[in-house]
Amino acid sequence: MKCQSCSNPATVHLADIGTNGQKNEMHLCQECAEKKKIVNSKEEINLPVILQTLLGAHVGAQSDELARLTCPVCGIKYMEFRAEGRLGCPHDYDVFSIGLEPLLRRIHRKIRHTGKIPRRRPKSTPVHVELLEMRNQLRAAVEAEQFEEAARVRDLIRQKEAADESG
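RE: above sequence
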């Protein structure tokens, strides 16, 4: 394959899937990739530049607004995130949400991480969820030394457990 800039043999290949789902590919020789600052002379991939290119493609019109954003908690600026590829604290997700959401959607297809669920985990039924809430109420009543309320909640828990076992 030849370089798209100078027709020398391409040694650096980049692929990007755009927001419309189309795959965009770039094939460059080492020299052209270094000129575009995609790789440095040590043949290492420059991830911050690639990340900056990806972010720029997804937030182009909002880049002026994003350039002025700074996290009030950790003090990182959006442009520092773009350069380094790392956020400073969990609050950055809220502060930089305008720029991060399109990127997260593109990479993970979602903007909220839900984690994995064990296969052998018992199914949560509304009764089990209600029992957990009632046990929390019981614990809170005991801690507050409201023993009459605690006895009432305890009796309700016993009734629910008996009904769940027989049902």
